[in-house]
């Protein structure tokens, strides 16, 4: 047993649970707001996936914890204090995003105070994933979502017309079929934050080069655009001949968009590897 590992005891997990509990209790109004946003607002429903994504990213990096000690514990309280200040300032000035990020930062600082700098750095992608718990500020995302939504509906209408299905994009609505059935605004690009989470999870859960990871995260709006077109074309075609299915399909197709985004990312990496473009962190000489 190394000197670094001797600092861990059977009470470390208990200390971590207590520290997290106290951090959540200290910022309870923000956490209650996050919970309500995740369960009541469809645009922020992806928040329920964040703990699973963070846990998966931590699991992917569990091998890096060998020999990790608990040095740098003193940084944790500083992080918690700074995040607490952000939380207070956000609440005092009505800045919801600052309020939420401050509450999340206090939890990260509490965890840091127990596990130390070495563990935090080795699990950094999982720690950063926790920031997705903050509900996406729609005033920031809506301008991007509106542009992507217009492109999505226009491309979808063009594809449907190519296959002989009458379709047109009218403002924020997609109209399909000979009966001019309106599907409303089902472009799904308001899920850009959710697809950003999926893209981040794929990028940092796969052994890719750091430049490729950053490129994938930055390309998440494009991934959202393509995934929504791929989803919306068959959805619209079915709805044009079976209008009664539109409501049900609209409810389930949003989550389907996330699966399509993940599949498109996987397919894109496979295509790049087939083209012998180095995307993985460690590529063999003959690959």
Explained architecture:
- The chain has helices spanning 12-26, 28-40, 50-60, 75-93, 96-115, 117-122, 124-129, 138-162, 192-205, 210-218, 220-241, 246-274; strands at residues 167-170, 173-176, 181-182.
- It has 287 residues and is mostly helical.
- A three-stranded antiparallel beta sheet has the order 1-2-3, with helices on one face.
- Strand 2 and strand 3 form a beta hairpin.
- Helix 1 (12-26) runs antiparallel to helix 5 (96-115), helix 8 (138-162) packs across helix 11 and helix 9 runs antiparallel to helix 10.
Short description:
The chain is mainly α. It has twelve helices and three strands; from the N terminus they run H-H-H-H-H-H-H-H-E-E-E-H-H-H-H.
- Please trace the helix and strand order, writing H or E for each element: HHHHHHHHEEEHHHH
Instruction: Report the average pLDDT across residues.
Output: 82
Overall structural class, as computed from helix and strand content, comes to mainly alpha
Share of helix, binned: 55-70%
Low-confidence stretches: 1-6, 283-287
Main sheet makeup: 3 strands, antiparallel
Counting DSSP H or I runs of 4 or more residues, the number of helices is: 12
- Strand proportion: under 5%
The count of β-strands is 3
Radius of gyration: 22 Å
How far is the N terminus from the C terminus? 38 Å
Task: Please state how the strands of the largest beta sheet are arranged side by side.
Answer: 1-2-3
What sort of overall outline do the alpha carbons produce when their principal axes are compared? globular
Task: Provide the domain count.
Answer: 2
């Amino acid at each position: 047993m190394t000197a670094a590992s001797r600092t861990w005891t059977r009470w470390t997990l208990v200390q971590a649970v207590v520290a997290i509990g106290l951090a959540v209790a200290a910022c309870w109004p923000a956490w209650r707001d996050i919970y309500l946003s995740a369960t009541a607002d469809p645009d922020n429903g992806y928040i329920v996936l964040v703990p699973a994504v963070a846990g998966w990213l931590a699991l992917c990096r569990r091998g890096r914890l060998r020999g990790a000690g608990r040095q740098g514990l003193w940084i944790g309280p500083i992080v918690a204090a700074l995040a607490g200040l952000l939380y207070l300032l956000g609440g005092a000035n009505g800045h919801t995003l600052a309020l939420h990020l401050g509450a999340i930062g206090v939890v990260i600082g509490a965890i840091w105070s127990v596990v130390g700098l070495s563990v935090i750095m080795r699990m950094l992608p999982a720690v950063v994933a926790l920031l997705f718990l903050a509900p996406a500020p729609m005033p920031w995302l809506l301008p991007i979502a509106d542009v992507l939504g217009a492109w999505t509906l226009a491309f979808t209408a063009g594809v449907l017309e190519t296959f002989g299905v009458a379709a047109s994009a009218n403002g924020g609505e997609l109209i399909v079929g000979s009966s001019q059935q309106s599907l409303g605004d089902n472009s799904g690009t308001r899920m850009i934050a959710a697809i950003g989470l999926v893209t981040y999870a794929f990028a940092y859960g796969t052994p890719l080069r750091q430049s490729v990871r950053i490129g994938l995260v930055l390309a998440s709006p494009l991934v959202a655009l393509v995934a929504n077109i791929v989803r919306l074309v068959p959805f619209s075609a079915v709805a044009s001949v079976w209008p009664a299915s539109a409501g049900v399909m609209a409810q389930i197709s949003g989550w389907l968009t996330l699966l399509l985004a993940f599949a498109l990312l996987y397919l894109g990496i496979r295509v790049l590897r087939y083209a012998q473009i180095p995307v993985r962190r460690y590529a063999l000489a003959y690959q």
